[in-house]
């Protein structure tokens, strides 16, 4: 009997661990997140292991002053302050090693880290956009035609965690 209880507890613990990330993303998207729009472009549209997805390179990956943060090691947390710009697209204003406390009006912080594999770019955990298999050719063709007009709606919570909501390619919108 004890073996069955321990086995069930081990299985439940594994299921709980697997459910944490999706639950966190749902909380950010529907409860605590503030919706913003970011400009991006695709980097790598296909990965055999994960199915069809796009790796996105956001403009905020190279915010002003990020090169000066030489004391921040790769994979250490950084905080990028964002503000709305032209056409309500948000852009990076500054980057900090600690969470800023006095943001002022109409600014938000997104949490990320320096990625040693991407030449020091900052990554925020929103760089992959999974595409339904049946839509991959359509989206790929649209992206090729609309390289300048690719936007992503993102929800960002008060702690700076982010989750992708939808992708805009030209005049078309794709829900995540």
- The helix/strand order is HEEEEEEEHEEE
Question: How many structural domains are formed by the residues?
Answer: 2
Rg on CA atoms, Å: 18 Å
Quick one: biggest sheet?
6 strands, antiparallel
Fraction of helical residues: 10-25%
Number of helices: 2
Strand residue content: 35-45%
Which word captures the global form?
globular
Strand order of the largest sheet: 7-2-1-8-9-10
Structural class: alpha+beta
**Total strands:** 10
Instruction: State the separation between the terminal residues, measured CA to CA.
Output: 44 Å
Mean pLDDT: 77
Low-confidence stretches: none
Plain-language structure description:
The chain is α+β, with helices and mostly antiparallel strands and 176 residues long. The protein folds into two domains: 1-32; 34-175, no CATH class. Helices cover 23% and strands 39% of the residues. The protein is built from two helices and ten strands, in the order αβββββββαβββ. It has helices spanning 2-32, 136-145, and strands spanning 34-47, 51-58, 77-84, 90-96, 108-114, 122-123, 128-130, 150-156, 162-169, 172-175. The strands form two sheets. A six-stranded antiparallel sheet has the order 7-2-1-8-9-10. A four-stranded antiparallel sheet has the order 4-3-5-6, with no helix packed on it. The longest helix has 31 residues, at 2-32. It is globular. The N and C termini lie far apart (44 Å). The mean pLDDT is 77.
């Amino acid at each position: 009997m004890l073996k069955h209880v321990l086995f069930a507890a081990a299985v439940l613990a594994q299921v709980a661990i697997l459910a944490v990330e999706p639950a966190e993303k749902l909380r950010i998207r529907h409860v605590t997140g503030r919706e913003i729009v970011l400009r991006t472009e695709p980097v790598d549209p296909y990965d055999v292991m994960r199915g069809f997805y796009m790796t996105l390179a956001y403009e905020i990956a190279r915010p002003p002053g990020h090169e000066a943060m030489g004391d921040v090691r790769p994979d250490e947390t950084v905080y990028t302050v964002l503000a709305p710009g032209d056409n309500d697209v948000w852009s990076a204003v500054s980057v900090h090693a600690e969470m800023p406390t006095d943001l002022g009006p109409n600014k938000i912080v997104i949490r990320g880290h320096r990625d040693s594999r991407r030449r020091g770019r900052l990554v925020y955990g929103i760089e992959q956009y999974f595409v339904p298999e049946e839509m991959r050719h359509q989206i790929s063709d649209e992206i090729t035609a609309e390289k300048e007009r690719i936007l992503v709606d993102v929800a960002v919570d008060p702690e700076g965690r982010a989750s992708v909501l939808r992708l805009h390619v030209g005049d078309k919108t794709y829900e995540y």
